[in-house]
DNA sequence: CGTTAATGCGAATATCCATTCGCATTCAAT
DNA sequence: ATTGAATGCGAATGGATATTCGCATTAACG
């Protein structure tokens, strides 16, 4: 941020600008989200925008940061540790994922469609991190006997598989139905996570 | 295509332009692939480009079409039907996928990084279709006894999972190692595909 | 050859947007 | 109320790039 807003008026403007960025992206798509439009939507002028954000991408990063915190919060709020059945735990996580993706009137969908030219990596990495942590705890508690060996790899695969299958599903006509998809995804993931480390023939 | 090339000279030019488009994307990235650069690379002028391609995106679509045919061809050339072990079959497919992604000096990587603003859907759908067809044949031949119920859903999940896990892996530093990733992906996919339709408790 | 249609050229044009800058307005402290 | 700092403005600027158009060159055919 180029300058710290000191007065109440300007703090509100910064807030309004980030809000407006989200709104514009959601309503007009990332391509048509211009500085002019953002400013107009926020009810301020373009010039003011540049008082507090070095450039347009700084604005978008601010938006992404806010969203990332949102997701992390929601994830933490799910009481997943208490769920004994692995299948059920995975299923709940996946359903949470779908609900996030559909929230905010398509904002997430538009962001996801444009993941590569956004600081999405930050967000994906963050999610991955959270899932990693969560999995570690979960397996420590529920699978004391044979702790999964290559949890890192497995969580990497599972997170990406689920994320992008969901994305593909949502960003095109859902020919399959969310219910079935969630169920089958859960079966694949839970089945894989529960597999013993190596299948070395005796 | 705006006009059909009638003379040999112009047919070669069209070819050269598509080649040049691929080269530019691969060398300079999609963002810096300008009509000027493409024309220069092809050794023709910008004006000539517009003789045969309505606009820049038409050129890129032509490139994508060519690549799609390439992949389809390679896929057909793999003798997967003969492989009895499901695990092995999946593993070979995945390794083929990696090899495609790495081929053409990073062209595919650049395209993949920018999938959303390209007619990539065409390509992904095509791939999915091919895998669907392939799976149907494979399971018909090898699993006569209980044919997989919801093959559509499973193939959808599996294709997307594998594709995008590979993409994520390749488009960032591979902290994991391709070998391990291919092995684990295979385990997840083969395990899931071989699962019986429903796990209704007796 | 000579004529016509096809092809090729690339400087000039058109468009779109991020970013700036000089001036106007509002705030806060005295 | 006065004043200096903070904030706000938005027309003007600049840069990038897709696309066009009038003229030059080349192929095809008699």
Please explain how this structure is put together.
- The structure is a homodimer of 202-residue chains.
- Chain A has 202 residues and is mainly alpha-helical.
- Chain A has 2 domains: 47 residues, Arc Repressor Mutant, subunit A (Orthogonal Bundle), CATH 1.10.10; 131 residues.
- Chain A is built from 9 helices and no strands.
- In chain A, helix 5 packs across helix 8.
- Chain A is elongated.
- The N and C termini of chain A lie far apart (61 Å).
- Chains A and B meet through helix 8 and helix 9 of A and helix 8 and helix 9 of B.
List the helices and strands and how they pair.
2 copies of one chain form a homodimer.
Chain A: H1 8-28, H2 35-42, H3 46-52, H4 56-77, H5 86-102, H6 107-113, H7 120-142, H8 151-171, H9 178-194
The first copy, chain A, binds a DNA duplex (30 and 30 nucleotides) through residues 3, 5-7, 9-10, 13, 34-36, 39, 44-48, 50-51, 55-56.
DNA-binding region (chains A, B): 34-53
Protein name (chains A, B): TetR/AcrR family transcriptional regulator
Pfam families (chains A, B): TetR_N
